[in-house]
Amino acid sequence: MSAHETESSPCPLEVDDETLADLHDRIRRTRWTDGIAGAGWSHGTSIAYLRELATYWVDGFDWRAQERLLNERLPGRAAEVDGRRVHYARCEGVGPDPLPLVLLHGWPGSYAEMYKVAPLLADPGAHGGDPADAFDVIVPSLPGHGLSEAVLEPGFGADECSDVVRALMTDVLGVPRFGAQGGDRGAFVSAGLGHRHRDAVVGIHVNLATGIPGASEKMTDAERRWLADRESWLVEEGGYVAIQGSRPQTLGFALNDSPVGLLAWIVEKWRAWSDCHGDVESCFTKDELLTNATIYWVTQTIRSSMHYYYEHRVHPPVAMRPERVDVPTGVAMFPAEVMRVPREAVARKYDLRQWTDMPVGGHFAAMEQPDALVDDVRRFFRPLRAT
After folding, report:
1. Which of 67, 160, 173, 216 lies 20 to 30 Å (CA to CA) from residue 166?
2. Distance from C-alpha of 101 to C-alpha of 381, rounded to nearest angstrom
């Protein structure tokens, strides 16, 4: 990359002892709720599992080890973009001509989601791959998520976030053209990059795709099932969308004050949206779950991360509008993804160049199925490297 990066500074992940001590004290003093006998996960987060995880958070979880791991795998920096502090990790590509690639996390995730895939993408030769597939990898913390400063003015959603990412890449890092990959909110930001900053974007690869359904008389059976499934999903699983899209501030008071409440809110989604068949630890370790939750806790960014839902309800980003995003697009469709949009609907919205039906995996693909995701990203960008 260029000398522009002198405008940024090292920003390792470091949490002070006082903050960690306060976290442990709050966990120990949790006022636990009761529950319906035998409910398990059917009414929300399992009390038994949450008690187990909270106990480990205090007595077994080694945050300092996770700091060391993330600082090694995802070395952090910070820069001022449009007057706000933006955190990002950079993994320099090792190869003859690394392609700049920004990896964009989702909700309720963080930049830590990318700790497995970023090194594989940056240095394929060291992991059994072809050095010609190397990327210069940038992993931002999206504004209001973790270590990047929240935007407190109204009107900031995924599209506006794409403006920040573009400014980080071109103005701070001096990268005129780059690729983007994202899931969940990161996929929405990727769509915004392709729509608003096409001149800077080589292509986008997403593992959560939106789409445009056909006219009623031309709608396929797959599209009809998709729309029906979406309505059923909103009834069964979409309560969080309603409250975060209408009253994120109210919910924010509770989750910002109770670490166990925060953990319950986040872990339920990691279980429900992954390909774990009810056993969340078949996909993620306790350490991975708690690292992500701890990042939200110590940065106090759960409220600001939820606020995107409000903005997207009031001012839907391009990913949610019936507009075309006309940049080369690749889609990795994992079977347990929360929104499985049919290929024909995705092709109406994007310049679809690659579609892969994955055999296993869910919403948090970068952590669930890192090798499969990396292989698909490499394959998608190979023909775009010279453009």
Report:
1. 67
2. 10
The DSSP bridge partners found for residue 178 are 201
Structure confidence by residue, pLDDT tens digits, 221-231: 999 999 999 99
In 198-324, where do the E strands start and end? 201-206
Return the beta strands (E) in the chain as ranges. Answer: 9-10, 76-81, 84-91, 99-104, 135-140, 178-182, 201-206, 325-333, 350-357
What does the block give as tokens for 65?
Answer: 């080890």
Tokens found for residue 118: 């970023």
Which run of H or of E encompasses 121? helix 117-122
Q: Which of 181, 176, 170, 201 is nearest to 79 (CA)?
A: 170
CB 144 within 8 A of CB 301: yes
Nearest-angstrom CA–CA distance, 313 and 325: 20
- For residues 196 and 66, give the distance between their C-alpha atoms in angstroms, rounded to a whole number: 36
What domains are defined for the chain? 3-30+45-384 (3.40.50.1820)
Closest of 204, 177, 209, 208 to residue 380, by C-alpha? 204
Contacts of 60 (CB under 8 A, 6+ apart): 286
- Assessment of whether the complete model's pTM goes beyond 0.90: yes
Element (H, E) at 59: helix 47-59
Residues with a catalytic annotation lie at 184, 309, 363
342: number of CA atoms within 13 Å, CB side? 18
In the block, which residue shows the tokens 């004050």? 257
Q: Tell me if 113 sits within 8 A of 182, measured CB to CB.
A: no
